[in-house]
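Notes continue from the previous slide.

Worked example: a multi-chain complex. Inputs as given:
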Amino acid sequence: MDLPAWQARLQRFSADRGWEPFHNPKNLVMALSVEAAELVECFQWLTPEQAAALQPTQREAVADEMADLLTYLLQLSRVTGIELEAALEAKLAKTALKYPAR
Amino acid sequence: MDLPAWQARLQRFSADRGWEPFHNPKNLVMALSVEAAELVECFQWLTPEQAAALQPTQREAVADEMADLLTYLLQLSRVTGIELEAALEAKLAKTALKYPAR
Amino acid sequence: MDLPAWQARLQRFSADRGWEPFHNPKNLVMALSVEAAELVECFQWLTPEQAAALQPTQREAVADEMADLLTYLLQLSRVTGIELEAALEAKLAKTALKYPAR
Amino acid sequence: MDLPAWQARLQRFSADRGWEPFHNPKNLVMALSVEAAELVECFQWLTPEQAAALQPTQREAVADEMADLLTYLLQLSRVTGIELEAALEAKLAKTALKYPAR
């Protein structure tokens, strides 16, 4: 997945709709947390068993919310200049120290 | 960014720590929403101006939370079989229909 | 505000709609976090100034989300047996120790 | 529960610690959503069965997070002037119309 290409595409998409002025970091993290909650909403009344065997409509809703979340994460990455893959690598190293493999 | 490679790596990381049994979709979305909130927490008392000019310590905390969020998103993608880039492409097409460019 | 009376009323309301079987603690906290996010959604694109001077429609939306949140909090209190006022008193004492008055 | 008395008490508590300048509506809803997530965190890796039978330590953590959530809800109610019990009454009437009793 070419993250910089996606970020440029999403930026253009937002600019074409006049959304860019709203996309400061504080607003973007709020929007991102709302999308996370919409993902939770897809699962809130399901049993663990139902959650593990989503019906097609549920599956599409989940995919849409995951996409929304990733959209805001990519935009937050762009406006803060925090590169996602480097952040993942750095965090995984910290977690490995904190929780050694068994 | 090679998403399947990262997903395999994260799966191995979790398996090495005995975390896999907890990673069903319902739990993963809860964990993901918690990480989203931890990201919100980094910004909650900042003015928009402070949020746009993070100090190094704040920046590292934000990077860590973004990484945690992406970790769970990649794992949710793996356990549900919902491919992130395809989901993003599909959702962007829907949003383009709903909100035409100006 | 008579919390036990409200809890009984909300329980009857849910029972009358067949919602009670879904109201276990895990589901209720998920639902509660979704309502918190819907409250965030009301504010996400507002400047601090706009957020401090809500228009009537915005104000009604905020009131509705606050009500939804309180509804789930009251239900969670009922199903867990955790009494809200006692919890508030106990937590405030802890916070007072952790952060002494200036 | 005497909500106005609690609101006055919480306001004094915040003022005594210099927190009042941060308590605008936008910040308060962010803080509130973070507390909702901390509540989710208490439950995220529990099975529904474990969630329904909390151990004493877990129970105390849940009570603390419920208290934090209520604290911010009371403060948000104060700064917005949205009265909680009236909001609950109004919202319940709407929900009754939308979802009639069976």
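Summary box: The mean pLDDT of chain B is 96. The helical segments of chain B are 3-16, 25-43, 48-51, 56-80, 84-98.
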